[in-house]
Amino acid sequence: MRYIPNSPDERRSMLESIGYERIEQLFEQIPENVRSTEPLGIGPPVSEPDLLAYFRELASTNATDFQSFLGAGAYSHHIPVVIDPLISRSEFFTAYTPYQPELSQGTLQYIFEFQTMICQLTGMEVANASMYDGSTALSEAVLMASRVTRRNKFIIADSVHPQYREVVDAYTHNLGFEIDLVRCGQTGPLDLNSVRAGKDTAAIIVQSPNFFGCVEDLKAIADAAHEQGALLIVAVAEAMSFGALRSPGACGADIVVAEGQSFGIPLSYGGPYVGLFATLEKYIRQIPGRLVGETRDSNGRRGYVLTLSTREQHIRREKATSNICTNQGLFALMATIYLATMGRRGVQEVARQNLQKAHYAAEEIAKLDGFGLKFAAPFFNEFVVRTPERASEVARRLLDKKILGGIALETYYPELKDSLLVCVTEVAKREAIDRLVSALAG
Amino acid sequence: MDNSRIKKVSTHIVQNEGLLFEESRPGRVGYSISPLDVPERKDEDLIDAKFLRDDDLEGMPELSEVDVIRHFTRISTWNYGVDTGMYPLGSCTMKYNPRLNEKLARIEGFAGLHPLTPAPHAQGALRVIYRLEECLAKITGLAAVTLQPAAGAQGEFTGIRMIRACLSERGNPRKRVLIPDSAHGTNPASAIICGYDVETVPSNSEGGTDLEALRAMMSEDVAALMLTNPNTLGKFEKNIEEVCRIVHDKGGFVYMDGANMNALVGVTRPGDFGIDVMHMNLHKTFSTPHGGGGPGAGPVAVTPTLEPYLPFPRVFKAERGDLDLDFDRPKSVGRVRAYMGNFGVLVRALGYILTHGDPGLKEATQTAVLNANYIMENLKDVYDIPYPGPVMHEVVFSDKRQMKYGVKNADIAKRLIDYGFYPPTMSFPLIVPGALMVEPTETESREELDLFIDAMKSISEEASEDAEILKHAPYSTKVGRLDEVTAARKPVLRWRPKSGDDKQRAETA
Known about the structure:
The structure holds two protein chains of two kinds. Chain A is of the alpha/beta class. Chain A has eleven helices and 15 strands. In chain A, the strands form four sheets. Chain A has a seven-stranded mixed sheet, with helices on both faces. A four-stranded antiparallel sheet of chain A has the order 11-12-15-14, with helices on one face. In chain A, helix 8 links the parallel strand 5 and strand 6. The relative contact order of chain A is 0.14. Chain B is built from 17 helices and eleven strands. In chain B, the strands form three sheets. A seven-stranded mixed sheet of chain B has the order 1-7-6-5-4-2-3, sandwiched between helices. In chain B, strand 2, helix 8 (186-193) and strand 3 form a beta-alpha-beta unit. Residues 501-509 of chain B have low confidence and may be disordered. The chains are: A alpha/beta, B alpha/beta. Chains A and B meet through helix 1, helix 2, helix 4, helix 5 and strand 2 of A and helix 3, helix 4, helix 5, helix 6 and helix 7 of B.
């Protein structure tokens, strides 16, 4: 086994040097009757060339050569080439959680930079070191809102990503929370008239742009929440929208969570991604997950440490409020490098291209006979197309033309049978958009 | 200070490097984007201006590509990784991260695959999931596996949720979860967020579960025992079958925290000694990179009784042999993460398992256990071992003998840095005051292990000769010991432009 440096002879000599004859003696603390006598049944070792060939063959059956207009929480954006060589530096990817700050300043500094840029993008005051992904970040936001307000009733728009809502359900299932779902399938954005917030509401939860691509009027929703002493939690599944849209912070959000996959992270069939979590300074001691802070060493040199760890579960075992232990270090690094490379100008330019191209596509599709836009609300890079026949059938036919044309919303919203969610980002060339349009035309 | 005893490292130039924001200069560009190829419109004509950003992303950096490369390369050199050397963090299994697996995860057919691609067009990805589930079922001796949890702690949460769902269906979810005092801190936290109260089971003098105490605590109010095996002392639970029997007799479940599975793969199977549900950490046992704190993956394996409660969707073999996704799982605890979990991590772990095969997996376990015992035997005369005797994959020392010179575990740990090693785990087990928990893994050479042993011995000598050296260590790093008290008291969690010397603001004004 090439990953084990010591040869069998060396191992034997080490074993003898500590007074054993056979390696099995070291395992005598395991009761004999439960020690395995048979091999695991996985098979013989596979060589490097054979393994590469096996995985390449598997990968070749995945439809990554299709023209894709899929979004719905995972987006195709150009990934700058510099990211991979930098994250492949083993000082980054083979390190662990920065428990020993003296040997982890590289990790700690980029997390500090990450936290800063997440604040700038979201318009919030503090951000944590990242979460697993958008869906778990939202769940932690719900738990936090309940701690902050000491209330446990929530109002959630059904235009929040359906899978995020499922994860929130799983996280809160045993905690006695009451979660009211507000239907948005006919309106697109949240209709505030159908929101019944009261003095017992912990938070109103919306996504913007929402699952249908519609931009929410966050300012109005924030006012409605705050009127009742409730928080506004904003989930953002498409982080690229921060480059074009007014930040949730500027609209009065109290907690902003996001999926950061758009910032240089491959689609990779759904993960790993990186969850973003930002809030207001006054809630600093209620934030889940890790935080990096700036400090000095004994010689006055600036350095960074994990801080406020008294919030963590290993200090107050029986009083834990969250079990999250790590962040998504390497994927926070990818986002940090992405944002540094694109920078202030690039993030806005890419966002603007998304906006422009999606609107071009939407207008072209809307011109087709029988097609239209389901909602009139403003959108960023994703929109719902009203199809002349069942959307799942439309999507299926596009597959024959090697086009992943969108998500049939019927899967998540049974009443929306004629609705196809289409996403157009900067990577879609005009000719690809035109091909989609003509394929839809038949 | 005499550093002649430090053999592994010598000091080296360290580059200073500011924050991205301090290095930013207006007008620098590090990106390349194709020109817009659709008719351009004014943004305000597409979206009401009230929804558009109006702060021009003030404060975000402007850097050239070279600036970016230099910045991250320089700060990376302030880190220590497994590729730098032995990283003996106990219970973290910091083993070599094979480059082959990195390559596999980056194959375009995986890396470029959208998570909502219809199943017939994602067969390769589904086959990775299906095969890894099969492998992990064989390794654990359990019936079924979910790969959805994003980390070990999420695996714990998923497992306890499933127990609760099953007990609820039987009519009573019960009230409490029992957790040994040697457990990792996430165990109680996971039980609490599933709505349980936590009770602590004491350890016996050998570091195992106190059977009498367990019997006394176990009742029909207890949903589960959460056990780490081998425990955080590196000891296999000798009475494991009896422990499981006590819990099962009262209708409870035994949850195993599989953080220490690197001691067991190919040698014994948790399903064979009575475990009902367990998680594994693919970033530990199965070598996927820790990445400076993530991403990980925390698959959960269960008995047939708990199988209906696994998160959805499940990958299954449809009629023509194709794989498909099953969402129709009425008893499922639901979804714990969007999409299919940390798929890229799953690819790497499957690469690891297939590379090793049956003999390699067993060889890795045996070597990991050998290396831990080798360290223990070579240091037992110098450092206190609160729970003596052979260990599995890790060994816990304490600072008891060095304390007489006023030297604590943290001082030993910090001095190890000067000797060229990452320090061991110190935060747990809580039952060992001044713990130094060392897990070498199988991927260390004898030379590296000997250098570590020498370093530990030398540090102990330094403690007796001049304890002050240790109390101010490390000396060789970019920064010394940092003021963590001030960091927590007056938190500075982000950069902000300083008024007066903010170049960016001055120059754009």
